[in-house]
Amino acid sequence: RRPQPYWRELRPGEPIVVEGFGIWLERGVTEAPPSSGQIVLLDDERVPERLAVRSRRPGDRYVPLGRQRPLKLKTLMWAQRIPISERDHWPLVVTAEEDRIVCAPGLPVAAEFAVRAETRRLAVIRFERGRE
Questions:
Q1: I need a surface site. Which of 55, 74, 77, 108 has the fewest CB within 10 A?
Q2: Which domains does the chain have, with CATH numbers?
């Protein structure tokens, strides 16, 4: 039986919990934070203002950092050994307007939102497992 799909807006300073993951967003950060849980660093100027967290959908794909072409989310999850039983629950951070994948726990960040040499401000997303 497939779990119910979900979609929740992710706002700075307002942590959310979905499918056992706590997810936090900070914007405009000038120094990388100390590591705790899983932290994803993004170029704040390239990330749209509105982000959301949703479950995966058939055909999801994106261009991960270091690649030139889009890869299927299913392929990336397989490569990172995310168990099949957890994949439909796995939280994806997406742009709220265009629904483009930004990042997900344990997967590479989308190339278009990745930190670059000229990045001045960071958007920081922290994932922490085991939250209710």
A1: 74
A2: 7-129 (3.50.40.10)
